[in-house]
Each structure stands twice: as C-alpha cells, then as structure tokens.
C-alpha cells in the first residue's frame, strides 16, 4: 500500500474510532443517566436539547466530519487494489465509517430536531429515547467495527 493511502486510512481509523467512542460514551453513561431520572423526564429532555445545541459547535465535529471524509477518501483510494486483503478491509472499514455518519444524519439528527421542537416535554423524551438509543448503538457499532477494519487494513 502506498504511504499516502496508508496515511489517509490511518486518519480514517482514528477519526472513526473517536466518533465511535463518543457514541459508546453516550450509550454507556449519558443515556442511562438520563433514563434514571424518569421522574424528571422533562429535565432529561432539557438536558438532551442542550447537548444537541452544543454538539454541532464542539470539537466532536472534527471527528464526525473528518471520519466521513477520510472514509470516503480511503474507499476511493483502495478501489483499484481490490481484491487484495488490505484493500477489502479498508473498503469495509470505510463503508462502516460512512454508515455511522449516515445513521447520525438520517436517524439521530431528525430525532434530535423533533425533541427540540417539542421542548422540554417528558412525553416527547419518552418517545425519543428508545429509537435514539437504537440508532446510537447502530452508529457506534458501525463506527467501532469500521475503525477496527481500517486498522486491520494497515496491519496486513
């Protein structure tokens, strides 16, 4: 594999792992903490709405957007090397990394927007929580598996 391609794949692996780590953190800590305050679901909605306002303005966007761009670039760079094992692993990792981005854009963000439109409403949070958690788990798994596959592509 060429050095430039390896560097792009490494950047894709790092940014995708960082994004996946954020999703894992939400699954492991943030959402369970919000769920425990069922008696204060309006407070949970308010907290989630504040997080969703902050997220697009945070350094997380570097990993989130960087992952999608680096994964796309990685996929394109290895297409000519298929069916070599490193290229297959890199393409699989790139597709999984992009899937994490698409799940976020197609499921999590619309759910966030619906919750924001409902305000700090307990019923809105109750309807939001289950679908958001499932999508978060899917994007986290896709991102972390993608990062692992991208690292494996470099190691082969």
UniProtKB/TrEMBL annotation:
It comes from the Bacteria. The chain crosses the membrane at residues 61-80, 87-107. Keywords: Membrane, Transmembrane, Transmembrane helix. InterPro entries: Anthrone_oxy. The keyword Transmembrane helix applies. This is Anthrone oxygenase family protein. It comes from Leifsonia sp. NPDC080035.
């Amino acid at each position: 594999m060429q050095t430039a391609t390896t560097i792009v794949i490494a950047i894709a692996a790092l940014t995708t792992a960082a994004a996946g780590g954020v999703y894992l953190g939400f699954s492991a800590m943030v959402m369970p903490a919000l769920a425990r305050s069922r008696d204060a679901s309006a407070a949970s909605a308010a907290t989630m709405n504040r997080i969703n306002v902050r997220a697009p303005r945070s350094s997380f966007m570097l990993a989130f957007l960087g992952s999608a761009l680096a994964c796309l670039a990685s996929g394109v760079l290895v297409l000519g090397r298929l069916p070599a094992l490193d290229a297959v692993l890199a393409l699989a990792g790139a597709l999984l990394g992009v899937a994490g981005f698409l799940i976020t854009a197609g499921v999590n963000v619309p759910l966030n927007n619906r919750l924001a439109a409902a305000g700090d409403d307990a019923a809105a949070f109750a309807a939001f929580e289950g679908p958001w958690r499932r999508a978060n788990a899917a994007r986290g798994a896709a991102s972390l598996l993608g990062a692992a596959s991208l690292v494996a592509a470099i190691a082969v």
